[in-house]
Amino acid sequence: MLSWLPAKPDLSELIGAISKNPEASFEAIAALAGYRQDFLQTNRIDRVLRKRFSAPPAAWTSQPVRLAILGSSTLEQLPPGIRVAGLRRQLWVETFTGDYGLYRQDLEDEASALHGFEPNAILFVFDAASFFGAGDVLLSRQEARAQVEQAVVKITDLWEKAGRLCKGPVIQQTFLLDPLPIIGHNDYRLAGSLPSLVRAANEMLREISGEHGVDLLAIDELSARYGLEAWHDPALWHHAKQLISPVATPAYGDHVVRLLGARLGRSAKCLVLDLDNTLWGGIIGDDGLAGIQLGQGSGQGEAFVAFQRYIHSLSRRGIILAVCSKNDEANALAPFEKHPDMVLKREDIACFVANWQDKASNIRHIAKTLNIGLDSLVFADDNPFERELVRRELPMVSVPELPADPSGYGRCLCDAGYFEAATVTSDDLQRTRQYQDNQAREALLHSSSDVSGYLRSLQMKLIWAPFNDIGRQRVVQLVNKTNQFNLTTCRFGEADYDNYRAEKGSLTLQLRLQDSLGDNGIIAVIVARPEDDRPDVLRIHTWLMSCRVLGRQVEEATLNLLSEQALRQGAYRLIGDYRPTEKNAMVSSHYERLGFSRLGGETEARTEWLLDLKSYAPRETFIEIIEEGP
Amino acid sequence: MTKAEILEKLSEIFHEVFDDDGIVLTPETSADHISEWDSFNHIHIIVAVEARFGVKFQVAEVTALKNVGDLVTLISARLAA
After folding, report:
1. Contacts of B43 in chain A (CB under 8 A)
2. What distance in Å separates residue B62's CA from the closest CA in chain A?
3. Residues 6+ apart with CB under 8 A from A41
4. Over the stretch A614-626, which tens digit does the pLDDT of each residue have?
5. What is the residue extent of each domain of chain B?
6. Which of A315, A402, A471, A552 is the most exposed place for a label (fewest CB within 10 A)?
7. Contacts of residue B13 in chain A, CB cutoff 8 Å?
8. pLDDT score at A122
9. A270-416 CATH fold
């Protein structure tokens, strides 16, 4: 149920290692909370935390929460999930669980352990039977109504007592819809059936909780989302009076803590969005306005529209939107300004950053421009590389693990609950506009991100092969669709592919990038051909690369490989040309950056560059170059 | 899955429940041998076994368990079914 958190296959081993390491830092333990986990893992993280630390680090500015959990059933299984969720959302939570069924006495008795605990937050967890027994199918509508009102009066009385005991949030869990229907689909016609009583009570709690300043934990909605069995196991109910199954406690805790966080000002305020394959399908710089998938006509296109609609609603209720995209700004803006199916418009975006810098630096810039803390940001990006980079560089930024299919993006963001709010104020509704008005569009500052540390940790491998049968289709596809990182934009087909492959003195390379996050597939293509039949001079006919791997030293590693292979076949010079198009401005200084010197004889249609391989010193990179096995 | 493999996977669950990698399970191990093995942790063990082995037990079966060997036999029977 924690599907928005990244999975870590060796999490149990990692927790075990940290448990055995008495020097483990608070941050190391807190980081464990950020992974998808089951209740055993959650419980163990909680154990390690409490063994080592009795207070939050000084940097956590929120006041510690002292949460009392009071209810009519066994509650001991709940605290670890709540405390670990606190780690995830930077809230230090101490918990108290009352003996089950004694909540009323505990609240009234000033000498009780509950009063001694001095809670500043209270959570009420009730089961239906303790208020309604088995229900009574013979009750009239009026009698049933009276029973519901009676139950709700009892509950509001508890809220008042709780309010006197604690100044902070009071949370009421709604009744779980576990009672069995008596007549079926139309059970509501039988007012005294237990499901009918429970539904009516939940409805009434929804009506009145706001005026009492109490927030609901909508377990009935959650069980509709994940299935009743995900939260409640009847065997455990009968066996151990556990209303909430231990299996559900990590997710349960997260929901409790997001409610606490909403009251304590810890909810996120701003959603930072990637563009290509996040807001639309495809790459705007390569595919163009007409080529991206957005809107009617394809399932993908409609899924992106639905995601944008959800985001638009978030924006209208006060979540600030920002864009952080690796793109030329003009390309990135084009859909916002010209695509008829874009739901989000330029004016919905309070801070729009499209450039080729690393995203951690850009996100810092966004936070600074909007003048909000990094911990108020949520970053949505389809690309696992970018997500990992941001998690690593900026652990305080929330980064949901979006699913592969865009039709699941909205649900993922919603499930994560980063933007939980108890109320929506008129200020919220004005906020986006305020940010747009105040926005200062200053130039991007260079930052001090430890990108090289990240690149090193990725253990990148550039795996190369000359053109071969297997690569034909993919290479030709790349050659014909890559527009941005493409020095010459020479298109060619499968027949040409085979010609270059067979041509005497030609050097062909297809490059695949693997890293610790997975295989990126073929990401770059090189064709170099002998100049005027001189075997010692190679002209780079094609050099292209997928923008997904930009900023990872692939260009440098590719040149190292190219020069090595050229020398091996007796070539001492490389000539490269850059032929400008509307879309490839980003590589205009590619050869210069790699140490080529400018040749004369340029025209508007091209600049020419020369590299003398005898004096070329290979560039240092964090990429290992490997020849693909046969 | 052989009984030895079940016992190994079960050991991992015990290590996690009790946060103690030193626990060595044998078929004879019972609640008398592990001081923290109370009724609360017992439920955690059973629920974790159900989740990680993908099986479901009846309340009566769980109540009848005397030691780890019984649990291994029960898991083995479920996996075979």
Report:
1. 77, 236, 239-240, 242, 246
2. 10
3. A11, A12, A15, A32, A250, B16
4. 999 999 999 999 9
5. 3-80
6. A315
7. 40
8. 97
9. Rossmann fold (3.40.50)
